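I hope you will forgive my troubling you with a question about protein structure. I set the record out below, with my sincere thanks for your time.
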Amino acid sequence: MLCRCFPRSTAAAHRCSIKESSSSIITIPLLLTALKACSSARDLELGKRIHANAAETDRTSDVFIASKLVDTYAKCGSMSDAQSVFAAMREDSVVAWTALMLGFVENGHGDLALELFDRMLRSSCRPNARTFLAALKACVSLVIARALPGGENFQGTENHLARRTVLDPERTIEGTIHLDIGETVQAGDFSPRTVLDSSHLRKSTGELHHHLERAVKIHSLARSSGCDSDVFVANTLVDLYAKCGSLDRAQRVFHSIARPTVVSWTSLILGYVDAGDGATALELFERMKIQNTCQADAHCLVAALKACSLAAEKEERSTDSTKLLGLEKTRSIHSDALARGYASNIFISSSLIDAYAKCGSMIEARAVFDSMPRHDVICWTSLLTGYAENDEPELCLQLFSCMRSHGCSPDARTFVAALTACSSLADLETGKRIQQELSSHGFQNDCFVANSLIDFYGKCGCLAQAEKVFHAMGSSRRSLVSWSSLIAGYSRQGDAQRVFDLFQAMKDAGVGVNGITFLSVLTACSHTGLVEHGRRYFEEMVTRHAIAPEIEHYHCMVDLLGRANHLDEALEMVTTVMPFKPTVVTWKTVLGACRKWKNAKLGRVAFENLVKLYPKQDSTYLLMSNLYGSLGMWDEQTSVLHLRSAAQTSKKPGLSWWTDDRGLVHAFKVGDKSHPQIEAINSKLRTLALQLKENGHVADLSSVFHNISDVDKEDALCEHSERLAIACALVNTAPGTAIRVVKSLRFCDDCHSVIAGVSKLEQRQIVCRDSSRFHVFENGRCSCNNFW
């Protein structure tokens, strides 16, 4: 009997009184109530039992019962049953059509939903506002599916990285709101994350046009039916147009809404977030607050925090660790969230961690994390990523171990964060162990993970291993990110010919190049002195690929010209040719070239501009001081050092480090005495110095920029941090094994010469990464051919 199909609590809640002996009182309202309860519970088995009982009493011929059965089966995920009921219906029902469409959308088949919509338009049944909403939601789902890395795989890890949808069950009708809690672009970095566009929705022009055309068609139909004024339809149109890249249409729809809701504002804010325009998104958020017609909810606050992250990424650093505008806005939104009682909202907390990290404030990011009552993998990973991308890779790896001890299993994005930390440290052994672990979790075939492995091996100077991962992906899975990561690896090593060959192969494979790819190509030209090649590729960007050069491309050209001693031309590029206002990076690039070529006149021009832009940057004064010191201009050097003292600059000391097989980082400052093995390290350095002298090495005293005696200069050179790190590695590793050392600054000329000699004496490959490139020393020679 039907009454047995109902759980006692459901029947009581709906006050259903059904007598087992009297099937005649099994009314249509009772069946509808039962099916509604079943669809809410997503109980497929119960739904089928109700369906069977309804069929026994011939109630399934009723259009309301049949429509509700379609809806129930769709909500329970059984689209085959939903379609069977729909096909058996004797009467058209807009409710049934719409329920089936929404079922296809919610079960990841937006294309089938749109096919059904087209069939409906050819039928006698007319769509209503909810039908148009279903069609628009189908379009949104397809835009996201096509745009995400990995194509239409909604279960893929890169999808998990690119977005996390936060929808309250009671708000699903109000429109599709996709809130991103994850990584975004780091301009100028060559990591896989940055090869993605500023929006996580990467679409080809053809796909954009196709989706936009379909959106315009549905909008037109909705308008002709008088349904475009429905706020839910309008909100979804704003979201869809924004995701199709048509922010002007999104704005027009938004302004047509008589009284925009918080969902309306959030959809438009996210549109600008998706477009990479964090500043405009924040302006909209502030305008919403000023108009005070609606209050920001959790969804809106998360969208605003994403905008903060974008604003922080694009803002010029005003201190070494904090991007002030984004940080100020993040703190304000954090305060709003606390005032509105969202302190325990895990989505807001995750977004706050991400935003604070993007702003460079890891102390505040960690404070949010520590205040949370529970942590999911997203929170852990946001904090891990923050440490990895804010020059605290050791803390990232420590947290990576701690995360698992707290019972939280890493996902693919977590492994990517850990690999990023290993990349920063050039920690090859730990990275290899992480690769083994992620493979055991089944992530080895994830495209995003594979791209990160290519990047990791490239940053460790293991290009053969990077190529192995690249080729293992197969041609069908290699993306723009894969190619660009491999090209960037060879670019860092200065292997220009391999960069050119891969660039051509990439184009031959039909993979469209972008600005990031050209940065790698131009950098390779710069590090090998190929000025004419660089000029040709720079021109090719515009003439053959229609890519407008960004300021980073002009910086590459300034660097290319400066390294090749075309200093006047480099200055002209900055002051006349470049259509951007010079930044700290611009002038520091010029000043670095002037120091290399000992050009005090042009160096002074760059120095004065740097001081105007950012008077508290310590490295500016040191570069100019070293330039004067290299020329023996001691009075001028003293003057610069006085200016430095008056500016009260904050100095971040240069470091060199070597990471042992256990993952322990051995870091050194110049003249460091703190290492427990310092006596053995210094003894090794003294032995090497004697052997090098016996082999004819003469110290390059011009590499010391202080006005001290020649003997003191030789002693000072022996205390450089890279030599201490290399000696530490030599003391602690077996003869003949390769060692990897990283320096946060540029190598001096004398250290470069000494390391080459040590590689021959010790019969070791010594891989060194400084602030600009890799140097692979072997048998007395460096891969850079002494040009860097």
